[in-house]
Amino acid sequence: MSGPDHLVGILGGMGPAATAEFYTKLIRRTPVTRDQDHLRVAIWADPTVPDRVGAVLGGTTDPYPAMLEGARRLRDLGTTVAVMPCHTAHVFLPALVRDSGLRFLDMVAETMAALERREGTAGRVGLLGTRATLASGLYQDRLREERFDVVLPEEPTQWQVDLAIRKVKQGNPEEAGQHLDNAVRAMARTDANLIVLACTELPLAARHLTAVGHSELLDPTDVLADAVIRECGGLPPATGRRRAG
Amino acid sequence: MSGPDHLVGILGGMGPAATAEFYTKLIRRTPVTRDQDHLRVAIWADPTVPDRVGAVLGGTTDPYPAMLEGARRLRDLGTTVAVMPCHTAHVFLPALVRDSGLRFLDMVAETMAALERREGTAGRVGLLGTRATLASGLYQDRLREERFDVVLPEEPTQWQVDLAIRKVKQGNPEEAGQHLDNAVRAMARTDANLIVLACTELPLAARHLTAVGHSELLDPTDVLADAVIRECGGLPPATGRRRAG
To answer: What is the C-alpha separation between A25 and A172, in angstroms, rounded?
Structure first.
C-alpha cells in the first residue's frame, strides 16, 4: 500500500492543541513539493472525552466509551494507520485495539524504538508526563526492560509539569514554557542523558523554553509523526535532537 | 443546540498546512479553561484532491468529486456546522451544499459581514488570493454590491502572491513571508484601506512579514473561526486587527 492509498486516522481532542500540533508536525515532516504529495488524514477530535488523568488515578468518569466511539468512527472512515497523540490515553490502547479492530501505531513503543536507535540500550532517561502516565508505568516498565535507568520528577518538579500541561490546555503556551523550564532545569541536575516529553502538551510549552544547553529533549510526537510517514511509504527527516535545560 | 452537541466538520487538505492552521486558530480563539470546553471537531483532509486553481482557470482534472466525497463523509459523521478553509474551493461551495446537504458557513460571506461591521460599506479593499479566486469574482462581486472599491494586484504583485502560496504548500513559510511582503508593500501603494488575505495559505506566510505599519490586513480564517465559535454558542474574541505593509 503506497502513500495515497493510506488514510491516517488521528484520535485526538485529548487535548485539542496537542492534536493540532501533531497534525502540523505530520505535515511539516512529510517530504513534499505540492499538496498532492501529502498524506490523507482524518481527525476525530472529541475534547468532551472525560479527563484521562482523573480516571487512571482516581476512578473518575470513564473516558473509554468515548475513546472507543472515536476509534470506531475512524475505522469506519477507512483508516489504515491510527495514532493517538496523548500519552495518558495510551493506558487504554490495548483495549482500544482489541475493541475497535483499528491498527494503531503505539507512541510509547515507537519512542522506545527511537531511544534504542539513539542511545543503544542502557543510559539514564528522565520522564516528564502527567501523574497518570507516570503512575501507570507506561514508559518505566519498558525502559527498565531495556536496562535504562529511569529518573522521575520529585514532587515540586511534577507540580511544575502539571502547571505546564494545564497552561497549554488553557491556551497559554508561553506561561507553560516557564513551568516546563523549571522542570527541565530540575531534571538536568539529575544527570539524565536525555529527557522524554511524555505528555503531548509539553512540546507546545517546549517552544517557549528559555534555558537551552543542559539536557537533551526527546519529543515522542516527532517520533510518532515519523513512524506514520515511514508506515505510509515516505521518508521522514532524521528525528531532530534538541538541547535544552 | 449548545457547544457540546455540535460537531464542527472541516473539509480540509486544500492545502494541509492551511487546514492545520485553521484548526489551531479555532482552538486558540475558543474561550476555555479545560479540554472539555472545546468544540468537537472532525477533519477530513484529502490533499490528493486535484488542484483547484488549475481546474477553475483551465479545466484540468475536476476536483469536485473528491470534495463532495469528503463533504459526505463529514455529513455521515454527524457534522452540524461545516467549513472549508480554502478560498478557491469556495467556487464549488453552492454545488457542495446542494449535493451533500451539509450546512456550511461560507468564508466569503462571513468575511463580507466582518468587513461591513468594520468599515461600514464603501472603502477601498485590496485582494490577495490565487489567480482562480480572483478570476472567479468570488469576492469582487460581493464587494462591489456593497460599494467597496476593489484593488486587484498587478501582474508582478500576483506573481509574488503565487510564490508565497507555493512556498507555504512546500513547507517554507519563512520564504513565503518574503514574497507576501513584496505583495503587501505593492498593495499598500494603492491606498487600499485594508488588504484581505483571500487565500488560506497566506496567513501562514503573514507570520513572517517584516514590513509592518502601512496597510491593515484582514484574515478571513480568523473571521471564519469566530463565526464557527459563535454558531456553536461561544463568544469568540474580537477579530484581531493587524497592520502590515
So the answer is: 19
Q: Do B114 and B108 touch, CB atoms closer than 8 A? A: no
Counting runs of H as helices and runs of E as strands, what totals does chain B give? 11, 8
Domain regions of chain B by residue span: 3-107+222-231, 108-219
Domain spanning B3-107+222-231, CATH architecture:
3-Layer(aba) Sandwich (3.40)
CA distance B192 to chain A (A): 31
Closest CA to B23 of B233, B195, B221: B221
Nearest CB to A23: which of B4, B23, B46? B23
Out of 3.40.50.720, 3.10.50.40, 3.40.50.1860, 3.30.70.3450, select the CATH number for domain A108-219. Answer: 3.40.50.1860
Q: Which helix (H) or strand (E) holds A148?
A: strand A148-151
Select from A20, A35, A170 the Cβ nearest to the Cβ of B20: A20
Segments of chain B with pLDDT less than 70 = 1-2, 121-122, 211-214, 237-245
Cell of A77: 472512515
pLDDT tens sequence across B140-153: 999 999 889 999 99
φ/ψ (deg, to 5) at A202: -65, -35
Contact A35 B47 (CB under 8 A): yes
Q: CA B94 to CA B91: how far, in whole Å? A: 8
Q: Supply the ipTM of this predicted assembly.
A: 0.94
Q: How far apart are the first and last CA of chain A?
A: 42
Q: Which residue of B has its CA nearest to A52?
A: B35
Would you say the pTM of this structure is higher than 0.90? yes
